[in-house]
TrEMBL record:
<feature type="transmembrane region" description="Helical">
    <location>
        <begin position="102"/>
        <end position="124"/>
    </location>
</feature>
<keyword id="KW-1133">Transmembrane helix</keyword>
<feature type="transmembrane region" description="Helical">
    <location>
        <begin position="21"/>
        <end position="41"/>
    </location>
</feature>
<keyword id="KW-0812">Transmembrane</keyword>
<feature type="transmembrane region" description="Helical">
    <location>
        <begin position="365"/>
        <end position="385"/>
    </location>
</feature>
<feature type="transmembrane region" description="Helical">
    <location>
        <begin position="61"/>
        <end position="81"/>
    </location>
</feature>
<feature type="transmembrane region" description="Helical">
    <location>
        <begin position="392"/>
        <end position="412"/>
    </location>
</feature>
<protein>
    <submittedName>
        <fullName>Uncharacterized protein</fullName>
    </submittedName>
</protein>
<keyword id="KW-0472">Membrane</keyword>
<feature type="transmembrane region" description="Helical">
    <location>
        <begin position="424"/>
        <end position="445"/>
    </location>
</feature>
<feature type="transmembrane region" description="Helical">
    <location>
        <begin position="501"/>
        <end position="521"/>
    </location>
</feature>
<feature type="transmembrane region" description="Helical">
    <location>
        <begin position="457"/>
        <end position="481"/>
    </location>
</feature>
Amino acid sequence: MTKNIQKYLLLHYPNIWNIRIVPMLFIMVVVHLIFFGIGYLSTDISFGKTHYYSPASDLGILYPTSILISLLILIGWLVLFNRNNGFKIFYPKKTGQLYGEWLMIFLITTCISCIPLTLTQGYIFKWNSVSSYDEATKAMELLDKVRVLIPDETESFSYSSDYDSPIPIPHNIMLDPDTLDLSLYAVDYNRNDGIRIEGYTGPSLLFYKDYKFNNYYYYHKDIQNIEVSERQKINRQKQVKEWLINGQKDSIYTIMLAFEKLQKKHGLPIKLTPDKWMERIYNPPFFPVNRSTLIANYQLGEDEVYYTDEYPVAAADSDSDVIAGYPEYYHTQTTPSLPSEDLSAGYSHILDYYDYNYNNELQTIVFICLYMSLAASSFIFSFRVTGRKEWLTMLISMGILIFISVLLAAGFYEITRWADSEVISIFMISLWLILFLILVTKIIFKIVTKGKKGRSGIYINLLIWMIPCLIPLIYAILIAFEELTRNYEDRYYGEDEQFMTMLWINIPFIILAMCLVSVLVRRWKSIAEE
């Protein structure tokens, strides 16, 4: 079938035949299906980690392998595309045919460069098959609540006078100051009454604060000033504290059962049942966090030692009261573990891949693949337009130009000691844009005057290569100018989103700009060689 299609194209559309687009598309469909399957089958979704890195890290050697396969396919296609045949010097007669040739080259290079992206899509599809977006969101809400009930250390459960109040002492509890560790209580002293205990201030479930990421900052600010998702998370944890204060054991037990259900769903061993869990941490009215209530917040291994800043704790199935590898005075009871961190990491990873717009790692992979494709199509197209000699000459010349630019910029930076770095950046980038305008002017002048081509074949290579760089260069000038004129207090922290938007806008711009380039090239090709 492929041979018949190629024969038909050879007779009716020789330019399309020469690009080998039909067999290449067939090959690429097969290759992409294979790598999608490899990415899917190689993905571990066992929820056995407390942190997940990028797909490139999790898939290991498969990423370099996919890149190597892409390079081999590209080389094989270029050999076929540029081999000696009757159409080696054939050239389209119309601008539309020329532009169509670049589009086909871009399509093929995109298919080739996106093999690592397809591998990633297999990885993502496997993770998203674990649960729907709504299920993952509900699981994260449950884990936010459960976090209050897993005292893994004292720092997050410590009292702070800035935003905590001492836990009141119930009237029916009589405390003897002589038998207490007074560092755990708020006390007052006067001559008449002596020491009076006003409340409990030791580590407690009621003092839990999530210090992860930016939440430490949030607890010092008005809660209305934070993101909605973070505010909802804090409110969920406040609700659990209210359940503890109000003695709503049924509500607490319900989320413990739901947590156990999550463990079973993902095949995680249950080392602490809801009943034992409740018995361990439900100690009203103070709900203290100490050695007897400690629970590891991730799945401990067989002989793993859980160690906090306060004290080391042996794994739950350890038989020894003395922890191996630590001094003998480190004695402790064994501690159970609840894999809240394992589950949180897994479900966060799932949610990351349901919204591509907020996944910088995935967007980075997409942009690398697309811009490698654009670069390759520009180089291949310019080689097709001009020829080997002019192409190699410009490649060497561009390398020299880049080297000189970097050398000059480094010299200017050193002379000014980086004091005017933005001005130097604007100046150096502007030189490249001016160079592009000069090249366009020279080509148009050649076309209008119908003079001899001369060295213009060399120039047109650089003109084509610079098309993908125009918007990024202009964007870099705008950013440098903004940095130059903006005060430190007025700094805007959305540059990453702006940069991503610029890269997306640049892609359709390049596709449209190459249409204009095709017009110039078609006119330029009509000029006499000598």
